[in-house]
Amino acid sequence: MKKVPHGGGDGQPPSPAQLAIRKALKRVEEGLGEHFPEALDPLKAALAVAAVGCLSDNAQPTTLILIARPGAGKSMALNFMMPDGDDDWLNDYVYRSDKLTAASFVSHRADLPKETLSEEVDLLPRIKGKTLLSKELAPFFRGKREELMHTFAILTAVLDGTGFVSDSGAHGRRGYIGPINFQWLGATPPLSSEALEVMAQLGPRLLFYDADRKRKNAEELVEYAKHADIQDRLRACWRAVHDFLCVLYSACPPGSVASGSIAVSELHLKRLAFWADVLTRLRALPGQPAEHPERALGMLENIARGSAIAHGQATVNDYDLAQVGHIALSSGVAGRGRVFRALLANGGTATTAEIEKLASMSAPTALRYMEELAAVGLAHFTEGKGNAPATVALVEAFAELCSAPLLKAKWGEGEG
């Protein structure tokens, strides 16, 4: 694959490819900014993941799942990236699958003869080098504990990027050995505590993005109802995203950009490392050691570079880091992430009442997550005594993130 020159770093002028990407992205930003502004950041995060596929030296599949309550529009970003039918050129880069299971990657269906099981049936070889779009992944995160363990065990192996081989009584040994890299974008409602616990035990290679939004009030709903051209606006935004992907993949074909051509400053690299550590602790089980952060760091660094590519830049900037921070805060226990964000907003220390207000949650809920942050090594917790309220303070190493760039919170209501 021909390597694409990537200018724009160290004071160099941007390359023609970068200028074309910037121009196409500006049209996306203008369209969504006018019609669906709350979907813009999630969409740009999704485009950053798609752009990870442009890197030539990455062997780690990258998964980002948008999380929001029903009706919040979490699948909107994915719909904008969907190919328009079987003849669309985008099918060479994007694979749409609205319904799949862990068994879809390598099938062992007992009702089919083994000779019919091939690459035409198995999902894994068909998504190699592509971005898989799955706008409803809720079934992946439902079921009894044993079912969840089975599902995430398969996902953990598939997302290693080295293929997948399994054995069954029906068809014996089946699978694919060798590098199989891809990107995976999906959407789901908020996860159950049981799913989060299973993920924490197995350490799956899944990242999440809080794409929720505030509920519209009566006035806002009336204003929304006045727009009879919703489908026209959706189609216009889809066209802008479709055109952007055409420019992106023409300028930077999959596997054409060396990671080293996207510069990451020492400060941003340090903050990436902090966010990777935070992410693994936010989803750790209290009382148990968190997973090692190296893999999470590699994925976050790839997404930061993918975000730079999608913006036509040769240097990771503050917005790319803000997206990474949002992903880190979204990829663990949701309440912990909200309290950690509130702590950052409050300068690194806070009382229960301050957390209650900043995180929009009840006092008992705030207190519980304050204690959990201490249990996973992110903060120090001090119980309230007499008239003195309970307080929580970031561990000194993480206090530096108070000055890190961060997106605005996506959620709107608190928890009971």
Give the topology, please:
Blueprint: H1 16-35, H2 40-52, E1 62-67, H3 76-80, E2 94-96, E3 131-134, H4 145-158, E4 163-168, E5 172-177, E6 183-188, H5 193-202, E7 207-210, H6 218-225, H7 230-251, H8 266-282, H9 294-310, H10 318-330, H11 334-345, E8 349-351, H12 352-358, H13 363-375, E9 379-382, E10 391-394
Parallel strand pairs: 1-6, 1-7, 2-3, 3-6
Antiparallel strand pairs: 4-5, 8-10, 9-10
Helix pairs in contact: 1-7, 2-9, 4-5, 8-9, 8-10, 9-10, 11-13, 12-13
Order of helices and strands: HHEHEEHEEEHEHHHHHHEHHEE
Distance between the termini: 54 Å
Structural class of the helices, strands and pairings? alpha/beta
Instruction: Characterize the main sheet.
Output: 5 strands, parallel
Number of strands: 10
What's the tally of helices? Answer: 13
Pick out the low-confidence regions. Answer: 1-5, 412-416
Spatial strand order of the main sheet: 2-3-6-1-7
Fold-level CATH name of the largest domain = Rossmann fold
Overall outline? globular
Mean pLDDT across every amino acid position: 89
Give the tags.
416 residues; alpha/beta; Rossmann fold; Arc Repressor Mutant, subunit A; 2 domains; 13 helices; 10 strands; disordered N terminus; disordered C terminus
How would you describe what is shown here?
This protein is α/β, with parallel strands linked by helices and 416 residues long. The chain has 2 domains: 16-262, 3-Layer(aba) Sandwich (Rossmann fold); 335-403, Winged helix-like DNA-binding domain superfamily/Winged helix DNA-binding domain (Arc Repressor Mutant, subunit A, Orthogonal Bundle). It is 41% helix and 11% strand. It has helices at 16-35, 40-52, 76-80, 145-158, 193-202, 218-225, 230-251, 266-282, 294-310, 318-330, 334-345, 352-358, 363-375; strands spanning 62-67, 94-96, 131-134, 163-168, 172-177, 183-188, 207-210, 349-351, 379-382, 391-394. The strands form 3 sheets. A 5-stranded parallel beta sheet has the order 2-3-6-1-7. Strand 4 (163-168) and strand 5 (172-177) form a beta hairpin. Helix 8 packs parallel to helix 10 and helix 9 (294-310) crosses helix 10 (318-330). It is globular and about 70 Å long. It starts with 15 loop residues before the first helix and ends in a 22-residue tail after the last strand.
